[in-house]
Amino acid sequence: MKNLMTENFEIQETWPQIKTVGLAGIIVTFSGVLSEPANRAAIAFLAAARSAEWEEVEESNSTLVSTFLKIDLSVHRLEPIIERLQNLVDSRDWLAAPLPSGRTLWRVPTLFGTDRAPQLTEAAELAGQTIEQAITDLSTTSMRVLTIGFAPGQPYLGTLPEYWNIPRQTKITPNVPAGSLVTAVRQFCLFPYATPTGWRHVGATGFLSFRPKSERPFPLSPGDEMIFDPVTEAEFLKIESSDQSGNGGAQTEMLK
Amino acid sequence: MNRTLIVRSIGPAAAIQDSGRTGFMSAGLTRGGASDPAALHEGAALLGQMPSCAVLEMAGMGGVFEATSDIRIALSGAVMDATIDGATVQWNASHLLPACSVLKIGAARRGNFGYLHVGGGFATPSYLGTQGCHMSAGLGRLIAKGDILPVGSDASTDTGFYVVPEQRLDGGKIRFVRSMQSDKFEGRTITRFTKTEFRRDPRGNRQGIRMDFDGEGFQSGGQLNIVSEVTIAGDIQITGDGTPFVLMHECQTTGGYPRLGTILPCDLNKVSQAPIGSSLKFELLTFKEGAAIQARSSAVLSGLRKSIKPLIRDVTTIQDLLSYQLISGAISAKNAPLDEG
Fold first, then answer.
1. Does B28 contact A149 at a Cβ distance shorter than 8 Å?
2. Is A105 within 8 Å of A142 (Cβ atoms)?
3. Is the ipTM of this complex over 0.85?
4. Distance from the A132 Cα atom to the nearest Cα atom in chain B, whole angstroms
């Protein structure tokens, strides 16, 4: 609340910050930039806030560096909720919080490049890598689900080595198909359905992060890890024709 | 006998709606639901049922429907011309649609989204726990000619009521409060925003609506380097070139453009219903003022059942409407002796 009504936008910022989001809820933000500890803090704080079972909270989520609690602030008084949140914020060092338990590692067969993922060459050039080096980086880095958002089930995955801090395109690609692996700013997104994007399309998968007709419509959770195993075009076509479940031939194992 | 409505013809963007789904925000799925939630309450009050009943939302254009049994209906939201077997029926009112009769609903004359409610609600399939169509997530589909819409069982036979709706079909003043990123904007930018006359741009959909304006944009200081953050319906999002977009009920769950403020839910209905080109002006309220106004609006909607009135004659033909006690007093939706005549 502190800075809510000030008009000076060059505030010396301290973290975490607790702020209102319109009349729709309260957000706790752990950093002004994306960092691995701030992301862990957001996931851990969400778990703690959920286990407190505050009756005012309609639903909640974690984004890249924040935890959001949806509360109708036209119904519930703000001050006592802020006080409870502040106490929870102060109760421990959230930036040192461990990752959640029960995480899954997903190994997803991926076709890098070819006309199915036509921007691999461009992305590799921007990262200053050869195509072979690029495929090695993109397929061997275990990428963590930082948050689920934007589209249903859609993961933001991070993070690649620093030289993959490549910008978004200035122009939007009108359409990349479902299952597309795209990259920008050291992250991946994996799209659940065909979408326009400003990120570069480097891989094709048969993995759909939203399966509305399945018993488990949203397979991924924040904290999960994903490895995009390279396959040949022939192998990829075989998986495509044999696995129509939306899983795209992915294998899973539990992480400790 | 089967209680259904047969769709003989339909506009290009009609779908089953309700108040949307909660609990999926952390899975990347926003609430969605009807574009004008106040209309859900009005129709429910007219039929004496819960506002959670599924309705038919008609964007811009209605349709032609044939009832297979006696069905109670109510009409709310954007005003459309409606007839039952050729006889004009009043909008914002409830009526009996007798078996084999034909209901015709024309184009919207004021506002964008008109609603057809049925006694018992539509009994269509649920997707992820509720019936409302979520277009951008691909849940549900548009209604097409030839569809047969199942109607739930209905305990009541009361019809012939009208309600005076909250004014919201012509744009006008839109009230907002500061939000988590408002302090990224200079005070003078926000002041200029509140003094600018906007027009509802044709560029818009269920995720967001562009605000058209003359003059320079409304960029924030830290426009290019903010971390993607949670978005909610009603957010005033400023894109890279300084143009405001109002985020609507099917918006994404996160976004990378800064939000100047957030519109009160009761005034977001006005943005939904504002015709293309209509004038919109934004007024900044303090958090306390905004919360109080929203609370009052919610109370009015939940008390609507007490303010419905029997439809004894067509109020549009009454010359001196204001001299009639239209909205005071209370009447039972279950006991309407005047309705029988």
1. yes
2. yes
3. yes
4. 31
